[in-house]
């Protein structure tokens, strides 16, 4: 896939997937963001920082797919190369971690148990998708390279020291 096509495809998928999961659905669940902001001390600034930091990680991860992998995160247009640079040296699933963090940041911002429950449901769905579809697919596609990567980089809880593989 050419770089321009990878960027265009990743941008479209960014809007379609995390844009809906971390943007549209929380917007609907929070009555179009009309809920009052949390009165719990610290929740609003922590939620805001979590949202901004996770959005930066998400953008970085999408850029890696397009520029390093020459593909998209969408299963219909996968990368030509295994993406293991940047944030992927700290955690195997930074997009899912970022999306869940954005949702939890919004839950803090609004003190919303509905958004917490949505994040838990999202975590179960994402975890199942990774376990039963993504990992076997990546193992078939990239073979030993993926298995080495999988053994050395945690899936969900980022490590501070990057893997040097």
TrEMBL record:
Membrane topology listed for this record: Multi-pass membrane protein
Pfam families in alphabetical order: PEMT
Any GO molecular function: methyltransferase activity
Keywords linked to the UniProt accession: Membrane, Methyltransferase, Transferase, Transmembrane, Transmembrane helix
Classification via Gene3D superfamilies: 1.20.120.1630
Keyword Membrane in record: yes
Organism: Rhizobium loti
Compartments (UniProt record): Endomembrane system
Biological processes per GO annotation: methylation
Protein name, UniProt field: Isoprenylcysteine carboxyl methyltransferase
Transmembrane regions: 46-67
GO cellular component: endomembrane system
């Amino acid at each position: 896939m050419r770089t321009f096509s990878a960027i265009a495809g990743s941008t479209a998928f960014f809007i379609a997937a995390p844009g809906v999961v971390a943007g549209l659905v929380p917007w609907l669940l929070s009555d179009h963001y009309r809920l009052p902001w949390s009165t719990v001390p610290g929740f609003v600034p922590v939620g805001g920082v979590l949202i901004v930091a996770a959005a930066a990680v998400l953008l970085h991860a999408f850029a890696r797919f397009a520029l390093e992998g020459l593909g998209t995160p969408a299963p219909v247009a996968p990368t030509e190369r295994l993406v293991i640079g940047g944030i992927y040296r700290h955690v195997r699933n930074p997009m899912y971690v970022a999306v869940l963090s954005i949702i939890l940041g919004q839950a803090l911002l609004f003190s919303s148990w509905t958004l917490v429950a949505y994040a838990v449901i999202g975590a179960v769905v994402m975890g199942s998708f990774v376990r039963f579809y993504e990992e076997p697919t990546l193992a078939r596609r990239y073979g030993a390279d993926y298995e080495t990567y999988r053994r050395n980089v945690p899936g969900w809880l980022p490590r501070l020291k990057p893997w040097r593989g």
